[in-house]
Amino acid sequence: MKDYIEIIKKRRSYYNLSEDVDLTNEEIKYLVEDVMNITPSHMNSETTRIVLLFDDKSKDFWTRVNETFDKSINKEKFHGFYHAKGTALFFIDMNEIWDQEINMASYRDYFETWGHHSAAMLQLNLWQALRDEEIGASIQHYNPVIDEWVKEVYDLPEHWELVAQMPFGKIEEEPEAKDKKPIEEKLLVIE
Fold first, then answer.
1. Of 10, 34, 140, 189, which is most buried by a Cβ count within 10 Å?
2. Going from the N-terminus, what domains does the chain have, and what CATH number goes with each?
3. 95: CB partners within 8 A, 6+ apart
4. pTM for the whole thing?
């Protein structure tokens, strides 16, 4: 348990990234596959999809994102995203969600929320697994502004809903510690 807690403590939002990671693209792909296969999902539905971009494909993605936002992305963050080893794009397969809504109507109002929970668990698990390999990452949300061209450029189904982008790479700089609210404001123990 202590090892797991230490991994969680090491996981931070890393923005200053580079390509120089110790793992090959193939090793990272296998890591992503493992994390996808072991991460739980609502009713074992596995509705999250990942598009994995490496090297120049990742650079091209971030160039397009920056252009979409008229080059207004924070320059320091953009530099790290652009120079990262890769980017994982997270989607929810809405066809799967809609099928669940039809087939289990009594839970209809919850499946989309649960789909987002499943995607979030996968994002966090991958983020921590990468960090355990000395690879930094962060979660970005440039969707829905980029949704249309992402589906077009990568020839993705219309029913895939983009929910997050995760640039990852070698950690070039540790982020500053963030202040946290007192635990008493966040935790209620009833015995």
1. 140
2. 4-185 (3.40.109.10)
3. 157, 159
4. 0.95
Structure tokens given for 45: 């539905």
Residues 139, 164 contacting (CB under 8 angstroms): yes
Secondary element (H or E) of residue 164: strand 160-171
167 prior amide bond cis, ω within 30 = no
CA 141, distance to chain mean position in Å, is 9
Q: Looking at 8-111, which runs of residues are DSSP E strands?
A: 17-18, 48-54, 86-93
Write the DSSP symbol of residue 174. P
The letter for the amino acid at 120 is A
What are the tens digits of pLDDT across the range 3-21? 999 999 999 999 999 999 9
pLDDT digits (tens, 9 = 90+) for 111-134: 999 999 999 999 999 999 999 999
Strands (E), 14-105: 17-18, 48-54, 86-93
